[in-house]
Design a protein that fits this description.
α2 (64-80) runs antiparallel to α4. A 7-stranded mixed sheet has the order 15-16-17-14-13-19-20, with helices on both faces. The chain has a 5-stranded parallel sheet with strand order 10-9-8-11-12, sandwiched between helices. A 3-stranded mixed sheet has the order 1-5-4, covered by helices on one side. A hairpin with a 2-residue loop joins β2 (8-10) and β3. The protein starts with a strand and ends with a strand. The protein is 36% helix and 22% strand. The model has no long low-confidence stretch (mean pLDDT 96). The chain is of the alpha/beta class.
């Protein structure tokens, strides 16, 4: 599918290519240009902020019921345009059509969930020790917030952030990844159709640091929510350090499955496919390491060899493909460099999936691989963000937990066991914000608080009611009745 040259909607005006030129959007399945979007620069930001500040003033005064109605209508429109949105995801990211459809539905659920909060409470009454006094707490919007979203979930992550930001009454400037801007642009169109006033949501497309630095440095910004690499997230934190700007960063992960000797290996197989190979491993919660008890290591390895060899990497819409392309050539080169360096340091390739014949030169393909690794190799600690999974043996539960926690990240971890004692002890001791027992490292519902520890993120959680804590400020009001 080709989308041509697209324009941005800034306030009531449409904006085409600026002095920054245009960004070409490629289809990872064939390398072809499918769209061109404006590459905004710092010179374009005054108009963006003028629109956002005007939108913030109007949206703040819009009651929660009306905000919720618009989000609920937007959720309905997302479902009505599900086929179109899924096609965009597949075209600009290379996600398999079934996975793209799932992302669209989950995105609608985020808008629906937060839209329902338009009739929920945003505060409460508290007792007061003073006579004839009623004290309440209320939550107010921050004002103008910047959302910086990644390419790996080009519709879901924006909806995950937009839902709580908008229901709270904030105006939003959203900067999608340059590789996948089309979903956000279509989403903004649907939100306008649902009734969102001009200026409340502005999409800014631009080339990475060329626009992000000046965007988040603007004095009108009250909060920045970022999802992406740990390196970029830390850079944003450093830039905003010492400023009275709220910062939320959801960053990388080195997520581990601990497989005990009493595990259901059928469940483990399914978890590896879903958590490690699903979405080509391009998830912050993707399974990157498998730590297995030595008593069942050989049996699990034999099973996983068959799993990997049964996968078929190829263009997203090609028949029989189970693992689509990665986002671009740079991602492919990075993943392969991780794999090759690991092998050079002593890792052993246990199994690899075949590639579709004749497609390697045009599609950005990586063959999923299972490696036997050790803690001395770089790949043990580095985030690969691709379908390369390392496996190592341990002799005990204690050794397994230590291996799981042997990382600067702390996003997701899982254990497979039939022992309730081990399950509860693992949940208590795993240094991760998301802990699964007999489930993959991936897969969290819209109302589940989400976020990691350490290099995986900042203290503010996304999703659930906890997300409102980032996008609002708390005011305490004491009223003396007489």
């Amino acid at each position: 599918m080709k989308y041509g040259e697209l324009q941005l909607h800034i306030g009531a005006q449409q904006r085409g290519a600026s002095e920054g030129g245009q960004i070409e959007v490629l289809n990872p399945s064939n390398g072809e240009v499918i769209a061109k979007v404006p590459a905004l620069t710092a010179e374009d930001l005054p108009a963006v902020f003028a629109a956002a500040e005007s939108g913030a003033a109007q949206w703040r005064e819009t009651d929660g019921i009306e905000r919720g109605r618009i989000l609920l209508h937007a959720a309905q429109l997302v479902r009505e345009h599900a086929s179109e949105l899924a096609e965009i995801i597949t075209s600009e990211l290379g996600k398999l059509p079934a996975d793209a459809a799932g992302e669209v539905e989950k995105s609608a659920q985020f808008l629906e969930y937060y839209g329902g909060m338009g009739r929920d409470e945003f505060g409460g009454i508290m007792f007061d020790g003073r006579p004839n006094t009623v004290t309440s707490r209320v939550r107010e919007p921050l004002g103008v917030v910047a959302l910086i979203t990644p390419w790996n979930d080009p519709l879901l992550t924006p909806c995950r952030k937009l839902g709580p930001a908008l229901i709270s009454g904030n105006a939003v400037i959203i900067k999608p990844a340059s590789a996948t801007p089309l979903c956000v642009m279509k989403l903004a169109e649907l939100l306008r159709e649902a009734g969102l006033p001009d200026g409340v949501l502005t999409v800014v497309t631009g080339r990475g640091d060329a626009v992000v630095h000046d965007l988040i440095d603007h004095p009108a910004i009250a909060g920045v929510s970022f999802t992406g690499s740990t390196e970029t997230g830390m850079s944003i934190q450093k830039q905003l350090a010492g400023k009275n700007i709220r910062v939320q960063t959801e960053m990388g992960g080195k997520n581990t499955l601990l497989v005990m000797d009493d595990a259901d290996l059928d469940l483990v197989e399914s978890a590896v496919v879903a958590g490690g190979l699903g979405q080509v491993g391009q998830r912050c919660t993707a399974t990157s390491r498998i730590v297995v008890h030595e008593a069942i290591a050989d049996e699990l390895q034999d099973r996983l060899v068959k799993v990997f060899q049964s996968q078929q990497a190829g263009p997203a819409t090609a028949p029989g493909v189970t693992v689509g392309p990665v986002v671009d050539s740079r991602a492919r080169e990075s993943i392969l460099e991780h794999r090759d360096r690991a092998v050079a340091q002593g890792a052993r390739v246990i199994a690899a999936a075949p590639l579709t014949d004749g497609q390697q030169d045009r599609a950005f393909l990586v063959a999923p691989a299972l490696l036997e690794v050790s803690t001395k190799q770089d790949i043990w600690n580095e985030e690969v963000f691709g379908p390369i999974i390392g496996m190592a043996k341990v002799a005990s539960f204690e050794e397994g937990v230590a291996a799981v926690n042997d990382t600067s990240y702390g996003l997701a971890a899982a254990i497979f066991t039939r022992s309730l004692a081990n399950a509860f002890e693992f949940a208590r001791r795993a240094n991760a914000g998301q802990v699964s027992i007999n489930h993959p490292t991936t897969g969290w519902d819209v109302h589940h608080p989400f976020g990691g520890f350490g290099d995986s993120g900042s203290g503010y959680k996304e999703q659930g009611r906890q997300a409102l804590e980032f996008y609002t400020r708390c005011k305490t009001v004491a009223l003396r009745s007489h």
